[in-house]
Amino acid sequence: MKTYISFSIFCLSAMVATAARAERPNVLLIVCDDLNNHVSTAGYQPLKTPGLEKLAAAGMTFGRAYCQYPVCGPSRASFLSGLYPESSGILDNKLDIRNVRPGTKSMPQAFKTNGYWTAGVGKVFHNSKADPGDVAWHEVIRFNNEENPVERKLRKAYEAEHGPIKDEDDRSWRRHLKENRSALAGQTPPGFGPTQMRDEQHKDGKNVRQVAKWLDEKAHANKPFFIACGIQKPHVPFWAPQKYFDHHPLSAIEYRPTPKGDWKNRPLLAISKRYEAFGFELEKENDELRRQYMQAYHACISFVDAQISLLFDSLKRNGRWDDTIIIFTSDHGYHLGEHSLWGKVTLFEECARVPMIVRVPGLTKDGTRSEAIVELVDMFPTLVELCGINGPNELQGKSLAPLLKDPSAKGRSAAYTVVSRGKALGRSIRTQRWHYGEWGSADQAELYDLINDPHEDNNVASRPRFAEQRRQMHSLLIETRKSAESKRK
């Protein structure tokens, strides 16, 4: 009798475990490259993003989400490992976390070891050399754009002088292409302009169609799936099909000119000189060039938005809309001339803050919004909790599940972002009202009142009446830094 009861309990436990696995939600993680908050879901009205609006209407938008390092490699290493950069050890684009922290388990690897079918397409990890490969993925693909007309002209000229190109990986040809493509197009080095390619001929068009193919063909079979779709745009070069440029006439571009003397009271280490590569000078406005770059950047966003919408259509077509968690975000923000800066690698709001929308069927309420402070490092522990999988014990982020249940719930007290500047490391902390940063030492500090000075025009760190606030923020920075470094090996 005891044997029968024991066997029955064993069978019941096995059935419950099997049912639990079957009921685990799927995950679709969408990560853009260099996307700032110039999207309508973040309140940026000059640019409409109807695809993202669909997702926001069915999920929760986070208005105060921050990256941990505003450069592609360190940011991705951080949120894909659930570690702050100072613990991950990845503080530039050259390091590989597998060498720096052997044994550290990435997000897709955790899902694969927990019985999920995992697939990645596009730029998920920083590059193919940093991608963990089979240990993390059942399938992983990186596409290239089909040939651009600018390259075609250059190819013909090259072949007329050097003979036919037999191998696309020919080093001489690739070097010649890199050195001359932008000049041939009459562009400054980062490159911008419309292409004559169709959406599906661009790598991002291929990325989303590959995800749709996996879903249509049920590549995941009877397993729950974890799919990461890396969207390369709006990373430079700012190339997109012509029709998306047509959405953004140069005359309609809006921007806030940088105030005169913007850099008179800031640490010089806070400057990133990437603006030089874009053809600008510090504190010198170039209206025509700024409009051209912004038009191209916005065209890329419109292109991205149209592609992402196809992902949602595919989920619905395959009956997966109501059992799939969707997270949309970017690896970091991007300057488009604010403070005379272009690109990334700063601690300003434009660079550290990212768009984020999360939809969890049965948990998030339609069209909700949270202004709680959250971080990209929170994504990994959030998915671990929501999917009921075993995650690494070393995760440093905090699950967003309480916020997803209740948008009025309190989030983090502060967000922490760092970035290298030579051998120094700039560190910053943000609360609901204050942004405080130090560049190598407390003597090189910035303090901004984000409520009364949302554009961060006035660094008040040296003003006597803010001395106490500066002291408090300095203490908070030190405390947060210790926590961020706590898993360092």
UniProtKB/TrEMBL annotation:
Q: What is its EC number?
A: 3.1.6.6
Can you provide one Gene Ontology molecular function annotated for this UniProt record? iduronate-2-sulfatase activity
Give the record's keywords alphabetically.
Calcium, Hydrolase, Metal-binding, Signal
Cross-referenced InterPro entries: Alkaline_phosphatase_core_sf, IDS, Sulfatase_CS, Sulfatase_N
Question: Which Pfam families does this one have?
Answer: Sulfatase (PF00884)
The biased composition feature labelled Basic and acidic residues covers 197-207
- The record's region (Disordered) falls at 180-207
Q: Which residues form a coiled coil?
A: none
Q: What does the entry list under GO cellular component?
A: cytoplasm
Question: What's the domain of life for this entry?
Answer: Bacteria
Query: Which stretch is the leader sequence?
Result: 1-22
Please report the stretch or stretches of sequence annotated as the Sulfatase N-terminal domain. 25-389
Q: Which cofactor does it need?
A: Ca(2+)
Kindly report, in one word, the top-level EC class recorded for this enzyme.
hydrolase
User: What is stated as this protein's family in its record?
Assistant: Belongs to the sulfatase family.
Q: What is this protein called?
A: Choline-sulfatase
Q: Name the gene.
A: betC_2
